[in-house]
Design goal:
The chain is α+β, with helices and mostly antiparallel strands. The protein has seven helices and six strands. The strands form two sheets. Strands 1, 2, 5 and 6 form a four-stranded mixed sheet that branches. Belongs to the UPF0260 family.
């Protein structure tokens, strides 16, 4: 029988490497910010990545969820499916991304739904793309994406910083 003095077990993201997560644990790491669904541009000479305020047409910008997540590859064949290996090698995951944080041995932010218990705190902390997307990639032509480069997706908002 557990006593009142026993500490609760640590959450899975503090005890398991990404490779050991169950599919449910893996999916729950996504905070629902939608930043990874923004169009990103890579500068060929430097390899630098730039975010835009243009989202994938599949992103529902208020909920910050994919409109058909399970079948997204049918609609967007080049949609990236994150894996532990990719998380460790791609440089465009935002600094607030739980996959990136866990891979780097960091803890999740206070607003992450797994910590707060509330899926709305990602929006309250101003981390999500809600209200920030100007258009989707069907509305803005590829030749116009450079006009939509923004810096905020690569930053941690003040309201989201660790408490």
């Amino acid at each position: 029988m557990a006593t009142a003095m026993e500490q609760p077990s640590k959450p899975f993201w503090k005890t398991k490497p990404l490779e050991a997560l169950s599919p449910e644990e893996w999916e729950s790491l996504c905070d629902g910010c939608g930043r990874c669904c923004l169009v990103k541009l890579e500068e060929e000479e430097t390899g630098d990545t730039y975010f835009t305020d243009v989202a994938c047409f599949m992103l529902e910008c208020h909920s910050c969820q994919c409109s058909d997540y399970e079948h997204r590859k049918r609609h967007v064949p080049d949609c990236v499916t994150l894996t532990p290996e990719l998380v460790r090698t791609i440089d465009w995951l935002p600094p607030t991304c739980a996959y990136r944080l866990v891979a780097d041995g960091e803890d999740l932010y206070w607003w992450h739904p797994l910590v707060s218990g509330d899926p709305n705190t990602v929006h309250q902390a101003n981390v999500s793309v809600r209200g920030k997307v100007k258009a989707d990639d069907k509305q803005v032509g590829e030749g116009e994406w450079e006009e939509h480069v923004v810096r905020w997706p690569a930053r941690v908002p003040k309201a989201a910083r660790r408490r």
